[in-house]
Structures are given as structure tokens and as C-alpha cells.
Amino acid sequence: MKTPLEQARQNPESMKAKILNSARKLFGQYGFHGTTTRMIASDVGIDISTLYYHWGEKGNLYEAVVIDMNHGIKTKLIEVENIIKGLPLEERIDIAIDELVDYLFEYPEMSNLTIFRYFTKNRYDSNFDKAIPEFLSDIAYSMGLSKTKDKSSPSAIMKVLNIMNSIHNYVSGESFFLPMLKIDHKEYIKLTKETIKFYSLSNFVQLEKQRV
């Protein structure tokens, strides 16, 4: 029997999918504790009993949101690997940053939820935290910082963390930073890429030269 998440993915116009999409948005805005099932139901335009019928308790829906996001980032990383495979390190980093920045700005709830997890305690035990080391290794491999997907060195993971944390901060902080910068959304994304590359590319290129 298919899970509610599998059913939602199979039919994007279904009520399960509508509830899931609303939950992603609201969990991303307010976190796990700041979001209630009544808020989600109201956003979708349904009563609370309909939400419980499709998804059960809030924890079940949160877990589905996390799994759905994990699936999305994994799919994106596979796409990035196919694009940058075999290219010089500088090009791999340049393209990977472009791709990851564009993806996370398209789905800002991913960055928001990640930052919520940094600074808030959650009584609900999610598999999201357990999957983070795997994702960091995948990104390190995609960027060419690790020779294998299975296990990256602490040094490679820290380099990925530096890049990913920078992206998450710029994505989540857009509404705060834009009035300071007095630019539009498109220009903000462009400057985000340029800034992250400014602090990352030269260091990675220097690292590559030291290895030769």
C-alpha cells in the first residue's frame, strides 16, 4: 500500500498534495512548533478533520515534508553531478554554486527549515538530522571535494558547510537584506552567487594547486 507521501507525489492535484504543499510553506515560515494543523487546514481551505483524514498528526505531516525535501535535494544533486562530471575543479565549484543557489531560492522553505533546526529544539524526532551527513558527502562529491559519495573527510564536509550555510543565510535573510541593498529579487540572487564565489573559488583553486 502506498504511503500518503507517495500518493501525493503521484497526484499533484489531490487533496494530499495540496495539504503537503501548504505544510512545506508554513513549516518553512514558522517552524515545527510555530505551525499548527489548524493553520495548514485554513491555508488549504479545509476543516481540521479532513487534514487528519489525509495525514494524521502534525508529526506525520512534518516527517513527510522532510522526506519530500530530502528527495528533492537528492534529485538535484544527481543532476548537478551529471553536469559537472569531469570538469576542472574551478568550473565544478562555479556551476555547483549556481545550481544550488537557484534551487534553494526556488524552494526557500528548505533553507528556512534548516536554520530553524540550528536554533530551535524540537521534541519531534525527524530523520532530517540523520540524513544531513549523507547530503554533505553527496555535495562534496558533486563539487569534486571528495573522491567517493560514501564518506567525505571532515575537511571536505566543513568546506561544504561553509558554502551551504552561506546560501541558507542569504535565502532566509532575503526579506531582511533587500531593503538595505535596495535591489530586486533577481539582482539579489545574482549578487548572492557572486559573493559566495568570491570567498570560495579562490580558496578551492589554491587548494587544488597545492595538491599538484
Query: Largest sheet, described in full?
Result: none
Q: How is the CATH topology of the domain at 65-211 named? A: Tetracycline Repressor, domain 2
Instruction: List how many beta strands DSSP finds.
Output: 0
Based on CA atoms alone, the radius of gyration comes out at 19 Å
* Mean pLDDT metric: 86
Overall body shape: globular
**Highest-level CATH class of the domain at 65-211:** Mainly Alpha
Low-confidence stretches: none
Helical amount: over 70%
Structural class: mainly alpha
Order of helices and strands: HHHHHHHHHHH
| CATH architecture label name of the domain at 65-211 | Orthogonal Bundle
Walk me through this protein's architecture:
This protein has helices at about 5-10, 15-35, 35-45, 50-55, 60-85, 90-105, 110-120, 130-145, 155-170, 175-180, 185-210. The protein has 11 helices and no strands. By secondary structure, the protein is mainly alpha-helical. The chain has a domain at about 65-210: Tetracycline Repressor, domain 2, CATH 1.10.357. The radius of gyration is 19 Å and the shape is globular. α2 (about 15-35) packs antiparallel against α3 and α7 packs across α9 (about 155-170). The model has no long low-confidence stretch (mean pLDDT about 85). The chain is about 80% helix and about 0% strand.
